[in-house]
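Re: that chain you flagged

S.,

Sorry for the slow reply, it's been a week of failed gels. I finally had a moment to sit down with the sequence you sent. For the record, here it is as I used it:
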Amino acid sequence: MDVKTLCLGVLSMGDASGYEIKKVFENAFSHFYVAGFGSIYPALAELTREGLVVCSDIEQEKRPAKKVYQLTEKGLSTFSCRPFRDLSQPQGSLGLHGAAGVRTSA
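Prediction finished late last night. Pasting the C-alpha cells below so you have them in one place:
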C-alpha cells in the first residue's frame, strides 16, 4: 500500500493536518508501514494536485497557519474504489496480510 492511499484512508475519517496524519500513521499503521513527513507531505501535495484533497490554512494565535487537509468527493470515490493489491507486498516491513497471519501467493 502506498502513502497516498493511506493518506486518503486517514482523511476519510475526517479533516487532518499533516502532523495529525503522521500521528495516525505512527499509532495505527506503524506495524506494517512506516512513513515520515518526507513522504506524507509530498503525497498530500500530489493528492491536492489531483483534486482528491483540498488544503485550507487555519490561522492560529502566535503560531504559523495550520494546513488542514480535507477529502473531496473525488477523493472519497477514488479511495472507495482503489484496489488494495499492494497489501501483499510490504515496503520494508511486515504487510497487513502477513501481520494477520494470512498467507498470500507470490
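What I noticed first: The first helix runs from residue 3 to 11.

Talk soon,
D.
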